[in-house]
Request: fold
Amino acid sequence: MYSHKKNVNLLTAVMARHGLRDVVVCPGSRNGALVHNFNECPDFCCHAVTDERSAAFVAIGIIEATKHPVAVCVTSGSAVLGTLPAVAEAAMRHLPLLIISADRPAEWIGQQDGQTLPQIGALQPYASTFVVPEIETPSEHWYANRQANEALVELSRNKPVHINLPLSEPLFEFTETQLPQERIFTEYQPATQSPLSDEIMQQIEAARLPVLVIGQYEKPLPYIEELEAAHHVLILPEHLSNTPGAWRTAVMEYTDTLTEFQPDLILHAGGNFVHKRTKLMLRQAASCPVVRIDEYGQCPDTFCRVQTVVRAGLPEVVQQLCNLTTAKPEVVRWKEMLEAHKIEARQLSLLSPEDPTALRAVQLCCSAVLQQECASLHLANSTTVRMASRFIEGGEYPVYCNRGTNGIEGTLSTAAGHSLASPGRTFVILGDLSFFYDSNALCNPELSGNLRILLINNGGGAIFHQLPGLRASAALPKYIAAGHTFRAQGLADTYGLHYMAVAPGESLEAAIQFLTQDEATRPVLVEVLT
Reply:
């Protein structure tokens, strides 16, 4: 039996017809009718997460694993505000995250009525709000249907969306035997086989050293190996691009002898670009125009010389680039030069001022992921994502990071969500601040042994100790880097994790073997103390 609330049933029916399947549900009374419907309808799979901030990141992880939109259902009041960090991340990475908030009647806003605040527009500017009101008249039904459909069409454009449902009492009457038959909107966007103009293709043909720079990218990229073999352009992907050849960017980042790199045309695609030194080198390439490839038509001028924005998907662009006719000697020369410096760059990176124990643990974990079937790797921001870049070839297994805009937020929750929807093992490498901040992710009995956690615990934010000039501040150890002596074993015991700690001088190889064990029925946590 379904709710007696017409707007709740309408939204449930429209979501089902639009193909949404996964819903992360948070506890509450005002959203109880919604949660009841999602659990009752066989079209949905519900995942219970108590903390709304964590729940929204869990949804991002499920989106990464399934490549489909995911909804989060929260109760009224400040609950919706807890989803904001993940909504901002989804906005920057163009992820279809749907936040559904139950609301109290508008007349009680500002009247000291519990869990009541203005929820319309609460997630702006990162997500627009669509209101699905309570329904009494045919006109109100038409409006509610239109709002629900407009929201889900917006979601299909890979944008986060907020749907707000005002619900008056009584809330919990389940009297309807079936959902209503609701109309839905569909949107069609014709494909373009040759998105690059003849002028741009001629510009690439004429270039001496055209470079295809790919930042964070999480979709399949066919034809990339064919383009690589043709030597038309130098492909320079980052490790978060999930593209073969990501090691090249690490070589550029960590080798001091490649300062003469001077491309004469940059094709720029993908999201956030992690490596600061390489980014600066590309910005300083004299008189080098940039063609931005962006399926959403946005214009990030990352390298400060955007000349043209091509609104197209990267796969279509890569396929068209394969039609170029000229293999370029300078492209071949730089491929060979980067290959020659590959071993040197790896050796230099292990001699960096960063903790050698942490680097070795990350290296072993990256190698272990490669040996796992259908495995994926999640990386925390700051130190971890940079350390791992030295050991990832690119394209061998999926690599994820909340790199749209987040700092330490949501790494563990996102990996937990990914593990709920992925058939393979989900590995996550993160530091101690990221782990303890997001430990609510572990408060989930649904988690299983396919979640594997490598925690690098160096007693605070190690990256802050590497920032020029900051060591002169007396506030650094305690307040800026948040130094501590916490250990994760208590949390592991609380949540029933398989746990192992590795002290300095103990075998990291044995720890990685424990991390990859086959017997685990609950998540596995290895804490490396450095």
About this structure: The radius of gyration is 25 Å. The chain has a mean pLDDT of 92.
